[in-house]
């Protein structure tokens, strides 16, 4: 009996590679940038295909190839998924310490920023024209 290629292994491994490298594309869209569900779905599909390929390779070794390449591809896929998750869920979330940032109640340095019309507005102008002694400053992180 002629042995056949175990395509489940190779398609599973390629799916994991697509999941690993496709975040460069998915980062362009907010729905997949904020939480990488599409990449995790590709990892899951690739994992299911790899497991199915391993069962075929070890269950019927006379028919399907893959007893050597199967575990190697599975381990490479696990390493790729682990590196992706580590990089995205741990390393990317680490914010550097902000030693020079103003603390609560500390006077902010004078600055000038454009308003919604593009006109420059300085902090000292706002404080002097409104007659108040305090201004609430709200900063938020966005996607530029």
Secondary structure topology:
Blueprint: H1 7-21, H2 23-26, H3 30-33, H4 37-59, H5 69-91, E1 112-114, E2 120-122, H6 123-130
Antiparallel strand pairs: 1-2
Helix pairs in contact: 1-4, 1-5, 4-5
Describe the structure.
With 144 residues, this protein is mainly alpha-helical. Helix content is 53%, strand content 4%. It has helices at residues 7-21, 23-26, 30-33, 37-59, 69-91, 123-130; strands at residues 112-114, 120-122. The mean pLDDT is 88. The protein starts with 6 loop residues before the first helix and ends in a 14-residue tail after the last helix. The protein has a domain at 7-91. It has a two-stranded antiparallel ribbon.
Task: Give me some keywords for this one.
single chain, 144 residues, mainly alpha
What's the quick description here?
With 144 residues, this protein is mainly alpha-helical. The protein has helices at 7-21, 23-26, 30-33, 37-59, 69-91, 123-130; strands spanning 112-114, 120-122. It is built from six helices and two strands; from the N terminus they run αααααββα.
Radius of gyration from CA coordinates = 27 Å
Largest sheet: 2 strands, antiparallel
Helix percent reads 40-55%
What is the percentage of strand-forming residues?
under 5%
Which structural class is indicated by helix and strand composition? mainly alpha
Which sequence of strands runs across the widest sheet? 1-2
- Average pLDDT rating: 88
Number of helices: 6
Report, as a whole number of angstroms, the end-to-end distance: 60 Å
- Spans of at least 5 consecutive residues with low confidence: none
Shape: rod-shaped
Number of strands: 2
- Pattern of helices and strands: HHHHHEEH
């Amino acid at each position: 009996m002629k042995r056949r290629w175990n395509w489940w292994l190779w398609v599973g491994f390629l799916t994991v590679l697509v999941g690993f490298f496709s975040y460069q594309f998915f980062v362009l869209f907010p729905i997949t940038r904020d939480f990488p569900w599409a990449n995790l779905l590709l990892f899951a599909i690739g994992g299911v295909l790899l497991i199915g390929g391993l069962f075929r390779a070890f269950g019927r070794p006379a028919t399907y190839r893959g007893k050597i390449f199967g575990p190697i591809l599975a381990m490479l896929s696990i390493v790729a998924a682990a590196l992706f998750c580590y990089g995205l869920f741990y390393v990317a979330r680490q914010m550097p310490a902000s030693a020079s940032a103003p603390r609560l109640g500390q006077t902010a340095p004078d600055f000038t920023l454009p308003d919604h019309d593009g006109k420059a507005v300085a902090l000292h102008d706002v404080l002097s024209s409104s007659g108040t002694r305090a201004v609430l400053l709200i900063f938020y992180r966005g996607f530029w």
